[in-house]
Automatic annotation (TrEMBL):
Family membership noted in the UniProt record: Belongs to the class I-like SAM-binding methyltransferase superfamily. Cx-SAM synthase family.
InterPro entries: CmoA, Methyltransf_25, SAM-dependent_MTases_sf
EC number per UniProt: 2.1.3.-
Descriptive protein name: Carboxy-S-adenosyl-L-methionine synthase
Species per Swiss-Prot/TrEMBL record: Ferrimonas marina
Gene that produces this protein: cmoA
Amino acid sequence: MSAKQDRIFSTPQSSVADFRFDDKVASVFPDMISRSVPGYGEILHTLSEIAQRFVSENSNVYDLGCSLGAASLAMRRKVSAQGVRLVAIDNSEAMIKRAKEHLDAFVSPVEVDLVCADIRDVAIERASMVVLNFTLQFLNPDDRDRLIRKIYQGMLPGGILVVSEKLVFPQPRLHKLLDDLHLDFKRANGYSELEISQKRTALENVMRPDSWQEHQARFARAGFEESTLWFQCYNFASMIAIK
């Protein structure tokens, strides 16, 4: 299934609306995320490797904020344990509809439940692996602690949480450098200054990233005794926490 090119912000807009994961975004999402998030492919590849090691028999796996199901596909690819159920959740009907098409195209013994819902309202039960792939940053900051705590409480001992996010940095010079390198990455992938500027405006009110230190403190507050940052490219990173 070939992805359409992301041209959503290529024409001048008199008033840039807040970013929404609607049908327009869903139709170009694979192109958008691959050209916008450095290291995205490496993160997906490693989710497969982590799933192979951590997903246990008769357990549940959760992809929270699944978008088109790329993380779900990656995890299913290497799961060999029996009796595993994968729950993929997103609050965008457009994303869930396309995720079903993507997941149905690959045969796997791992059952998938696609759920259109708010991830804050879904119970987490008997989880051996939970993934938040560029999802937490779109939640209200007040809801993040509650969600991570709920995930911890619903995980099996030895279960793993993977959280991938854009980061902010407390040191202004480092923050500017890594932000500038990310902008260069987007330019190198064909985005114009207009597209970069308008998308940034669209995201300002809906995406509020945390620092790695804030994520680590949140994991600890939820009960995770072990957490680390396993991948970083510019201001994008992926973290793991083990129960």
